[in-house]
Design brief:
The strands form 8 sheets. Strands 2, 28, 29, 30, 31 and 32 form a 6-stranded antiparallel beta sheet that branches. A 5-stranded antiparallel beta sheet has the order 1-5-4-3-33. The chain has a 4-stranded antiparallel beta sheet with strand order 6-7-8-9, with no helix packed on it. It is mainly β and 609 residues long. A hairpin with a 5-residue loop joins strand 22 and strand 23. Helix 1 packs antiparallel against helix 4.
Length: 609
């Protein structure tokens, strides 16, 4: 396959005193409508080598970078004399016919005029690329595997395999609005064997990325950064026109696969809720290659959210799929340990709802139906299609894992509750309750829309009584003076869906950066912190259990950490009991702040499909 460069130099950094905002990875199902097949032949079965903030209520200090951003390329094979194309000029593939070339030129001119007009008005910080992808939120080039990395300390013997973490890394310079969550998926991998470590990072070769690389610029609408107001409608119209003319083909998927990672049924799956998962293979050398869009052997015909749950006892994978255009707006299904899909269970919702995460217990799935909803008609009046509906009551649906329909779902209201992530849930039969642990955010709409009010994320215990239909919610850290924004993290995954004492969560301060992580005792509210240090920031802490039979907190925390003074990145391995650093792996290149990760042990890697 040809490897043309996208040839963009990263945008200039904004002044460090500017604040930033961010949003969630929302579904782009409104793009996935019917189009005629394009003339470009896409081989879905081939293997291609994959050469991959939330609303800010406070001051976000971006670093003054000690070097100039480099051009982001697929490989070092592109011509050094190649000149960057103008933002709205399409690189026309040779197989296009005369009419397609003429139509492409006309649409490019129309888009250029539209972008020029749009640029006269300032972008909100939630869509301004100078804010959203500044500092260590900015993209990096791919890195082939580098071995024999420098290690300070000793990596525990039980850690043998690959730590992988997903993130957003735009291949092309944004044409207009861009949110951090809009970027193309890139997986960063640290392989650990016999105390030695290697590193690689590669784009997940989504069909969206492949087409945009061929065309030479971003062409698919960005669900968060662009699809709002009248400009969002115009971008959709341009995209539909290009699809009708065979210039783009959304039928093979529109997603970026930049959010979640799960290892299931001998496959590493990269996910965002706007598409099916993509299978990524880890090579024996520790490199990464994209196998392709994975539909579970033709069983899956819809998108999946980015946070499926693997039951540690049954080995089943449970998940949801939501649609923002047509009913059913929400479906639940599961896969057996060997990949056999259950029938869809349609969950009755009155309106499409943003559903980034959910929870499982031993016998149930816990489905949040909250007040952040999709109303596409808001774009007609110039607004955002993602809004906070104050007239709606938040509730949780409790459904049996093996249900074949939603007739017996139990809905329990939980007023003014918005949890972007749920960390765990379990059953307490003696009180007829399901206990849910999550981070409750206020105000909810500040995740999606610019807001002057400071965002607050409170780790909470929510009790849902299945007999009375009542709920109770309390902050786990009871003292207001001890409050800290906690987001992104996990419990011991060997106990997922069962009663757990500890949660390991990112300290999201100064928002949206992560200055360390907290080990929280969910029973007592005690908080122990590991702070990365002066101008060092990280991301999601991953808990690696050292055994399946020991104490719940026996294990290690793995997290990428970036030093904004030296502009270097590392992997920290921290003892989860003592919170002391056991080892630090110095990485050969910068790792941007990202999203979610997982660990695949050496034995599982040998059985990759």
């Amino acid at each position: 396959m040809a490897t043309p460069s996208n040839s963009w130099v990263h945008t200039a950094q904004i002044p460090h005193h500017l604040s930033t905002t961010s949003s969630t990875s929302s579904s782009s199902s409104l793009l996935n409508m019917s189009f005629p097949k394009r003339s470009v032949a896409l081989n879905r079965n081939r293997i291609v080598t994959a050469h991959s903030a939330l609303q800010s209520p406070s001051v976000l200090n971006f670093p003054k970078q000690p070097y100039h951003q480099q051009v982001i390329t697929k490989e070092a094979t592109s011509s050094p004399s190649a000149k960057p194309k103008t933002a709205t000029t399409t690189q026309q593939p040779p197989h296009w016919n005369f009419l397609q070339r003429a139509a492409s030129t006309a649409l490019d001119m129309l888009e250029g005029a539209f972008v020029s007009r749009e640029s006269r008005s300032p972008l909100p910080k939630t869509a301004d690329p100078r804010v959203q992808i500044a500092g260590n939120f900015s993209p990096v080039p791919e890195q082939p595997v580098r071995h024999s990395l420098s290690i300070s300390g000793t990596i525990p013997e039980c850690i043998s395999g690959v730590y992988v973490r997903n993130g957003a890394n735009p291949l092309h310079e944004p044409v207009a609005g861009h949110h951090f969550f809009d970027g193309d998926g890139m997986v960063h991998a640290v392989s650990i064997n016999d105390g030695a470590a290697s590193y690689a990072c590669r784009f997940t070769e989504t069909q969206r990325l492949i087409q945009e690389r061929e065309i030479g610029r971003p062409i698919f609408p960005k669900a968060i950064g662009e699809l709002h107001g009248h400009s969002g409608i115009a971008r959709l119209a341009l995209f539909y026109a290009r699809g009708a003319l065979g210039l783009v083909d959304p039928s093979h998927g529109i997603g970026v696969a930049n959010a979640g990672l799960v290892y299931f049924n001998d496959r590493l799956l990269a996910m965002s809720e706007d598409d099916m998962p993509y299978q990524v293979r880890i090579t024996p050398s520790g490199d990464l290659e994209t196998v392709g869009r994975y539909d579970f052997e033709t069983q899956l015909g819809s998108t999946m959210i980015a946070h499926p749950k693997v039951d540690p006892v049954s080995g089943h994978l449970h998940t949801l799929s939501y649609d923002v255009v047509k009913k059913p707006y929400l479906k639940y299904f599961q896969f057996s340990a060997d990949g056999e899909k259950s029938p869809d269970v349609e969950i009755p919702l009155a309106a499409p709802t943003m559903m980034h995460d959910f929870a499982i217990t031993e016998n149930f799935v816990v489905i949040p139906d909250q007040q952040v909803v999709f109303k596409l008609q808001e774009m007609i009046t110039g607004g955002s299609p993602v809004i906070y509906d104050q007239n709606k009551k938040s509730r949780f649906g409790i459904l049996a894992k093996n249900a074949t329909n939603a007739d017996d779902i139990i809905w329990v209201e939980s007023p003014d509750t918005f949890c972007f992530h749920l960390w765990n849930a379990w059953e307490e039969p003696e009180s007829d309750e399901v206990v849910v642990i999550g981070s409750c955010m206020t105000p909810p709409d500040s995740i999606f829309n610019e807001c002057d009010e400071s965002l607050k994320s409170v780790l909470s215990e929510i009790r849902l009584n299945l007999k009375t239909g009542e709920s109770k919610r309390r902050p786990i850290i009871s003292e207001e003076a001890d409050h800290v924004n906690l987001e992104a993290g996990m419990v011991n995954r060997n106990l997922l869906g069962r009663k757990t004492r500890y949660a390991y969560l990112a300290i999201a301060e100064p928002w949206p950066k992560v200055s360390g992580f907290a080990k929280v005792d969910l029973f007592t509210g005690e908080v122990k912190k590991h702070i990365y240090g002066d101008r060092k920031f990280g991301g999601e802490p991953f808990f690696f259990p050292s055994s399946s039979t020991g104490e719940e907190d026996e294990g290690y925390i793995l997290s990428f950490v970036h030093d904004e003074k030296t502009w270097k990145s590392e992997l920290q391995i921290v003892n989860a009991v003592s919170l002391k650093v056991e080892a630090t792996v110095t990485l050969p290149s910068r790792v941007p702040y990202g999203f979610h990760g997982t660990f695949i042990d050496s034995k599982a890697l040998k059985n990759q499909a």
